[in-house]
Write a sequence for this structure.
């Protein structure tokens, strides 16, 4: 099946696979659909073979075959010693989906101040759903984002992984509405005005503070403590707002 094409038609992907187990086919469809919907976004690490086998009552060989089919379809790439990741060039129309559902949010006239107001209202809603639905793999992705942000050598790299973490929070709800909404909001962070403000306001001290807040949020989510995660997220977003716009 490795013909350079990306089988975003899930039925075609299953038809071309050699999977015999119904459970394996269901898993293949589930992962492909999550990539297609944007819930599993480019760069996200998938669960390991062992985790998939345990979660879906499969043999490790069957789980390995599912990942191989996804790799052959150019949806994921496997990196020795690190795991399996959604490919950065997976042909998924995330922007089209978000634009269709949230066209007004993608209006270039939306200002960074308006974006922060929206984030302060919406993101603190996520912990209640995350603590119910998040998996070990979701928390692993969050940890990877925090580690990558810590290692980032430029503000642009840090901002990329900061955004990836907040998108990972939405993905951990396993709710397509919040996933698409988070992607729509995140797309606005990529405009020039947001970047200019971040470059102007982000000091090493503030970056360390944000990282500490991120760790506290993730720790609370892992403990299934939605209240603490929500309060810490609100605290974090308010500080970002104050630092960006110098609010007293």
């Amino acid at each position: 099946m490795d013909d350079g094409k990306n089988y975003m038609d899930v039925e075609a992907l299953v038809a071309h696979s050699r999977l015999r187990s119904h459970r394996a086919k269901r898993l293949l469809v589930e992962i492909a659909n999550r990539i297609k919907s944007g819930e599993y976004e480019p760069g996200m690490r998938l669960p390991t073979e062992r985790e998939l086998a345990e979660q879906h009552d499969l043999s490790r060989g069957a789980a390995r075959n599912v990942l191989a089919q996804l790799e052959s379809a150019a949806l994921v790439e496997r990196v020795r010693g690190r795991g399996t990741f959604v490919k950065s060039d997976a042909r998924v129309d995330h922007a089209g989906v978000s634009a269709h559902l949230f066209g007004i949010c993608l209006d270039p006239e939306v200002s960074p101040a308006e974006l922060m107001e929206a984030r302060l209202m919406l993101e603190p809603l996520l912990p209640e759903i995350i603590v119910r639905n998040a998996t070990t793999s979701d928390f692993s992705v969050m940890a990877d984002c925090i580690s990558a942000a810590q290692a980032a050598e430029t503000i642009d790299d840090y901002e990329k992984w900061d955004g990836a973490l907040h998108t990972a929070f939405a993905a951990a709800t396993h709710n397509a509405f919040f996933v698409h909404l988070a992607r729509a909001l995140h797309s606005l962070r990529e405009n020039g005005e947001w970047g200019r403000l971040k470059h102007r306001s982000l000091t090493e001290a503030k970056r360390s503070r944000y990282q500490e807040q991120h760790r506290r949020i993730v720790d609370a989510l892992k403990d299934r403590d939605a209240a603490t995660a929500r309060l810490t997220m609100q605290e974090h977003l308010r500080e970002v707002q104050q630092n960006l716009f110098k609010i007293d």
